[in-house]
Design goal:
Largest sheet: 8 strands, mixed
Strand order of the largest sheet: 14-21-20-16-17-18-19-15
Number of strands: 21
Strand content: 5-15%
Structural class: alpha+beta
Distance between the termini: 49 Å
Length: about 800
């Protein structure tokens, strides 16, 4: 066992003995970069010292008693061989002042920078003081903050080890931190430097407000801001240029942007730490008009980061894959493909809208569209034999008992569920051409008649989404008439309905008919469907039961208004326009209803994946069934028998790595909303966006970030949300207006908002981060502007659940 090792003898492959910090610093020294000389007290030394108390540590870990573990470690007797080795290495270094830094072995995990989680001791002098500081670093592995950090990112306490780096102390004149990319915007061509007089620890710990520099990759200053220290001048340009040179060299060496601590002394720059930057946003994108349009759609459909299982199942086969297939049939490629790139860990790290590109076959598209439109009328699509076959096949798949199914058959179920959606894809290819032509024809006719503003209201049609909303209204009416039932619904606990058997039967009938619909996104398999999240449905019923429903827009009123036109008062032109409106409505209904049915295999896919996850949990490969989402379908299909897979640690390691990487990216956007929704001239508006449903309304803001918060909406609130899907549209019956970060006039939210006659502003990009709960605003759905209303807060927002 090696107790100490010189830093210069270590590199990236020595993480197990030197910890992340020690391995990185040794790598920098090997690369010829200016790192203060030093040595590492290895993990072997920690193991030797803690071996006698290992059983006690295990017991304390099980009990969650980190305080006692730290005390035990710091009080452990250090064998002579360990203390002598540390003393000899310190003497060889020059026996002067040193920095003693903790170096955990888990610091190689993506997103687990461990910044500030263990202790560092600066300006330590003397053999005894160094040995004491080393032992205190070992003990700091068990501080409350370090234990909480490891617990949050899922690191096994039993396998954690720690080394200690001892380096010659740099008595810095100026020190600080350097990021080789902009941590806010993600710009990789910007270097951010924070500097303060004296030791860099004051900057790292936040004790001072440092000077702030933004440089280009050549070290030229783009911006500068003084901190709170009395400094008469900035760092010299030569020092900034040297920092930029060193920073870009380190980032290039490690292959990713770096978080570097540096010190400047005796006219020389030193690097004292380097770690990968964590939680770094993707690089900024410059999008063209087509990409922005596509991005506005994708942000509505992908409001949360997909998992690897999403990327290998529902993303390529679900609605996005379907649309790629449809568009491909008419001569375009790259549509909805490659828009969610994955990083080296197998985790989606950004969203990049990819505009469809035409191929030579696009020249035949007009003929193909005309042919399909002539033979396939959307009014009769449910009479197509393929639709009946689809329903029968999905029903058969859904009836299979998964819990007793042998593994070889179970692992085929996801592919069977994915293959079952192909008929709906075929139907969309055949029936969408007439849908598109009908809408285009009506739009052109209205423009020629000068009545384009009626288009949105004219194409409102009866859909399965409307059926679902009507069913919810009926359930809400029952709760509205019975205070005891309303209280049971308000608990958001389906078991509370047992005391109301008739209502419970109706509620279960709703779930059986409509529960396959998504709660978060139709593009992802990982969020639960409504049948798996009955509390979400109960929250909708609770909102609706608060007061009688708002009447929907009378579509016949819009048609009557159109028919007042002098050219349409009688005769053949009037009959033709009625037929065109009916055709456009049928097309709109087909688009919505085929989406509704397309989602029917989604619960089957989820159940089969979670059953596989349950079996892998039972044999110790996963901690919980949902961890299966961190795996890809092909990885699951490669497992011959769950009972033997535990012999292979690769899957468990992949799950942990991807889980930690996702945790790192939890607060990072997939794409900067301002790239998709450029800032508009706002005047006195707080937020601007795309007009989606005309009219104005004033009310208090209610931020709803996801289905778990549905129950917070009150009648008359302005619903402000990051995205929408059909499940959200029930809320529109109570909202005064709708403001959404994503989406456009053709989104589900816009269509239903027009149906209910409430103002809607879509594609604001940042409404959920700018508007606040209770803020009184006026929403103008005609101009796309949200302005402050008189007064600022109408009422105190209720406490949020969870």
């Amino acid at each position: 066992m090696t107790i100490v090792m010189p830093l210069r003898d270590l590199g990236q492959d020595d993480l197990a003995v030197a910890g992340g910090k020690g391995a990185n610093l040794g790598e920098l020294l090997r690369a010829g970069l200016p790192v203060p000389d030093g040595f590492v007290v290895t993990t072997d030394a920690y193991a030797i010292v803690t071996r006698p108390i290992a059983p006690r540590i295990s017991q304390r870990i099980a009990a969650g008693d980190g305080v006692s573990i730290r005390a035990d470690v710091e009080a452990a007797v250090m064998p002579r061989q360990v203390s002598a080795a540390i003393a000899a290495a310190y003497a060889e270094l020059g026996a002067g002042s040193v920095a003693v830094r903790s170096s955990a072995t888990a610091e190689d995990l993506p997103g687990a920078a461990f910044a500030g989680q263990q202790d560092t001791y600066l300006d330590v002098t003397g053999e005894a003081a160094v040995i004491e500081a080393v032992q205190r670093c070992w003990g700091s592995l068990w501080t409350d903050r370090a234990i909480a950090y490891r617990s949050r990112i899922g690191i096994d306490e039993a396998g954690i080890m720690i080394a200690v780096v001892v380096q010659r102390m740099i008595n810095a004149e100026v020190a600080g931190v350097m990021f080789t990319a902009d941590p806010i915007s993600g710009n990789r061509e910007t270097i951010m430097i924070e500097a303060s007089r004296g030791l860099g620890e004051a900057v790292v710990s936040g004790l001072v407000t440092p000077d702030h520099y933004a440089l280009d990759d050549q070290g030229l200053v783009r911006s500068f801001q003084h901190g709170d220290q009395d400094r008469s001048q900035r760092l010299p340009d030569s020092v900034l240029a040297e920092l930029a040179r060193l920073g870009t060299t380190v980032a290039k060496h490690f292959g990713r942007p770096q978080d570097i601590e540096w010190a400047y002394a005796d006219e020389r720059v030193w690097l004292v730490q380097a770690r990968p930057m964590t939680a770094l946003p993707p690089p900024p994108l410059q999008l063209n008009a087509r990409q922005r349009m596509l991005g506005s759609i994708l942000l509505d459909y992908v409001p949360v980061r997909p998992y690897p299982i999403d990327m290998s199942t529902w993303v390529p086969y679900g609605p996005a894959g379907l649309m790629a297939r449809v568009i491909g049939e008419f001569g375009f490629r790259d549509a909805y493909e490659g828009f969610l790139p994955e990083d080296e860990y197998g985790v989606v790290d950004r969203l990049v809208p990819v505009a469809p590109r035409p191929t030579l076959s696009v020249l035949l598209a007009p003929w193909r569209i005309a042919t399909l439109a002539r033979h396939n009328d959307p009014r009769y699509w449910t009479e197509d034999p393929r639709f009946a076959e689809f329903l029968a096949h999905v029903g058969k798949l859904g009836a299979q008992e998964l819990t007793s199914m042998p593994w070889p058959w179970l692992k085929t179920m996801p592919r069977q569920a994915l293959d079952s959606i192909n008929p709906i894809g075929d139907l969309r290819i055949d029936y969408l051409p007439r849908t598109a032509l009908s809408l285009l024809r009506l739009g052109v006719a209205l423009r020629l008649l000068g009545r384009s503003e009626l288009l949105a209201d004219l194409i409102i049609s009866h859909t399965r989404t409307a059926d679902a909303n009507h069913a919810l209204e009926a359930l809400a009416a029952s709760a509205r008439d019975d205070p005891r039932l309303a209280a049971a619904v308000g608990t958001l606990d389906a078991t509370a309905l047992a005391a109301f058997p008739e209502f419970e039967a109706d509620f279960n009938a709703y779930l059986a008919e409509y529960g396959h619909r998504e709660t978060v996104s139709p593009v992802l398999v990982t969020p639960p469907t409504q049948i798996e999240a009955p509390d979400t449905v109960l929250a909708l019923i609770k909102v609706l039961a608060a007061e009688p429903p708002r009447p929907r827009e009378d579509t016949d009123r819009a048609l009557a208004e159109l028919l007042k036109h002098p050219l349409l008062r009688r005769g053949r032109r009037r009959d033709l326009m009625l037929a065109w409106v009916e055709a456009a409505r049928a097309g709109t209904a087909f688009r919505e209803d085929s989406h509704f049915y397309f989602l029917m295999p989604l619960p089957i896919l989820r159940r089969s994946l979670l059953e596989m996850g349950r079996r892998l949990r039972d044999v110790g490969v996963l901690d919980k069934p949902e961890d299966v989402f961190h795996l890809r379908l092909e990885e699951l299909e490669a497992i011959d028998d769950p009972a033997t897979v535990k012999k292979h640690d690769r899957l468990r390691a992949d799950v942990r790595t991807r889980s930690v990487r996702r945790e790192e990216l939890a607060g990072v956007w997939l794409i900067d909303p301002t790239a998709v929704f450029p800032r508009r001239e706002s005047g006195d508006a707080i937020i601007t966006g795309t007009p989606a449903s005309s009219g104005t309304a004033t009310g208090p803001v209610r931020l709803i970030h996801g289905p778990a918060e549905f129950g917070l909406l009150a009648a008359g609130d302005v619903l402000v949300c990051p995205y929408t899907n059909p499940a959200w549209t029930t809320l529109f019956q109570r909202a005064a207006a709708v403001v959404v970060d994503s989406g456009g006039p053709a989104s589900h939210a816009a269509i239903v908002a027009r149906e209910y006659g409430i103002p809607a502003v879509m594609g604001t990009g940042t409404s959920t981060s700018i508007l606040t709960d209770g803020q009184l605003v006026t929403v103008n759905g005609t101009t796309g502007r949200v302005t402050a209303a008189e007064g600022s807060v109408l009422r105190r927002p209720p406490a949020r659940r969870g």
